[in-house]
Every structure is written in structure tokens, then in C-alpha cells.
Specification:
With 203 residues, the protein is of the alpha+beta class. The chain has helices at residues 72-78, 88-101, 113-124, 187-195, and strands at 3-6, 12-14, 21-24, 45-47, 67-69, 81-82, 134-137, 146-149, 152-157, 160-165, 168-174, 180-183. The protein has two domains: 3-124, no CATH class; 134-186, no CATH class. It starts with a strand and ends in an 8-residue tail after the last helix.
């Protein structure tokens, strides 16, 4: 069983369960198919599982490491964004709503996506490679956002919290009586959700 599945905190874990999306952070494994780093590049992307009949053997030497996600909301929480090539329409939609939700950066559609990658990188991991979290009013968060409740990752959707597991969501519950809560999804991505981007979820 390979260590190649990503949870909402961005950690790369082992699980027999498969994902619906493919991810890339560069070459993360060694010749023994062991993960030796959490990322190599700033452009963390999410790809489709099949594209133009291409086939890859997982974790080949000196090739980028294939990562997998339960759903798109999980990929966003981990800090990934859509690939420009295999998900061109999703990438354009991502960029459109990201710009709409984050006008303070004064970017436009001509701005290289690498500029957004720089911001996402600051929002997802510290210089010590620790996951960045932040606090927000629970009532102000949009659907698709991941939060930490009772030390576990939950997806916010349809005024409920849904407990994340590698196999899918369990233990759906009404929103707890809280003011602020710890958020896993990067702040600019949450702003993008507020602006109208609806991520795919496994619910």
C-alpha cells in the first residue's frame, strides 16, 4: 500500500481507499517509493484521473509523485488548485472566482497563475512545513470549507458538518453552537467559494 493519498490538512497518508482526483507537488518519493518530502514545487495542482489516453505507472523513479484526493473540496483544503492543461475550464473558473473573491491583490486574468500559487503557498504551509490554519466565524463560512472540530476535519455543507474519512464522509451533524472555528481551507480559496465557486464534494 503506497503513501499517496492526501487528507484535508495536506498530509500524505496510506490508505487502501482510492480518490477521485489526481494531484501533483513535484517529485516527493525515492527509488523505494517512499515519501521523503511533502512538496518540491509551489504549483500544487489537481488533475483528472484520465486525460487523452495517457497512462502512468505510479511513483516511477525521478517522475512527479501521483497523489490522490477524495474530492475537490479536500484538494482545495490541502492547498491544490486545478491544472491548466487537463482541467482547462475548471482552471479558468478557478481563476475567475479567485480574482473576484480576492480583489485586494489587484490581479486580472492576464496575471500569471504563478502569482496566485505564491499566495496559496503562503496560506497553506509555513516555512517549517506546518499546515497554516486560521480562525473565522462559523456562520460566515461558505459551503466547501474544511474546519477543525473536536480535533477532526469536517466539511461544511448545507448547514451541516460532515466528518472526513479516507473512505468518505460520516457523522453528519448540525452546526455546533460556536462563534469562531479553526479553518483548514486557505483563506483566499474560502473567499473564492464566497464569490461563487462551488467545489465538487463527495456528498
Amino acid at each position: 500500500m503506497l503513501q499517496n493519498r492526501v487528507n484535508p490538512s495536506g498530509e500524505i497518508i496510506r490508505t487502501p481507499h482510492r480518490g477521485l482526483w489526481l494531484g501533483n507537488r513535484g517529485v516527493l518519493h525515492n527509488e523505494k517509493q517512499e515519501i521523503i518530502r511533502s512538496y518540491k514545487i509551489k504549483a500544487w495542482i489537481t488533475c483528472v484521473l484520465e486525460f487523452r489516453g495517457r497512462h502512468r505507472e505510479v511513483m516511477q523513479p525521478n517522475r512527479w509523485t501521483e497523489l490522490f484526493f477524495l474530492d475537490e473540496a479536500t484538494a482545495y483544503a490541502a492547498g491544490h488548485r486545478p491544472c491548466f492543461q487537463c482541467r482547462y475550464e475548471d482552471h479558468q473558473r478557478f481563476k475567475t472566482y479567485w480574482l473576484k473573491g480576492n480583489p485586494e491583490y489587484r490581479f486580472d486574468m492576464k496575471t500569471p497563475v504563478s502569482k496566485i500559487d505564491d499566495i496559496l503557498h503562503q496560506e497553506r504551509v509555513t516555512s517549517n512545513k506546518i499546515k497554516v490554519t486560521w480562525r473565522e466565524k462559523l456562520a460566515d463560512l461558505p459551503d466547501g470549507t474544511f474546519v477543525i472540530y473536536q480535533d477532526q476535519a469536517y466539511l461544511l455543507k448545507d448547514t451541516q458538518l460532515h466528518f472526513w474519512t479516507p473512505a468518505g464522509y460520516e457523522k453528519s451533524m448540525p452546526l455546533p453552537d460556536l462563534d469562531k472555528i479553526t479553518v483548514l481551507t486557505p483563506k483566499s480559496v474560502v473567499n473564492m467559494f464566497r464569490a461563487g465557486y462551488v467545489p465538487q464534494t463527495g456528498i
